[in-house]
Specification:
104 residues, 27% helix, 3-stranded antiparallel beta sheet, 3 helices, alpha+beta
Length: 104
Amino acid sequence: GLPKGQKLEYITQNPKVGFEVDEMIGLLYEGVDVACHTNTEFNSVIILGNAKVLTDLEYKKEVLNKIVDKYTPHFSGKELSENMVRGTAVIEISVQKCTGKYYK
């Protein structure tokens, strides 16, 4: 995101963060007569750690290129301009604790 804003101010004040990723696999409604009794099959990961905003331009470029490779592979290998790298905040989380859950 942008290299300014409330999120970055909070990280500067207190680097302790939590980060969660959920994957909904599907709805579980077989034999269910009431919508409120429907459940969800899912996987989730919760990470607790310390965040820091990256300042090393080469490292930021490396991280941003990996994001491009994963989410927009048709742009892989194209050079990111220095202005683009400078104008993008990249936050790194040093993992202190990682837990996972699932429901099937």
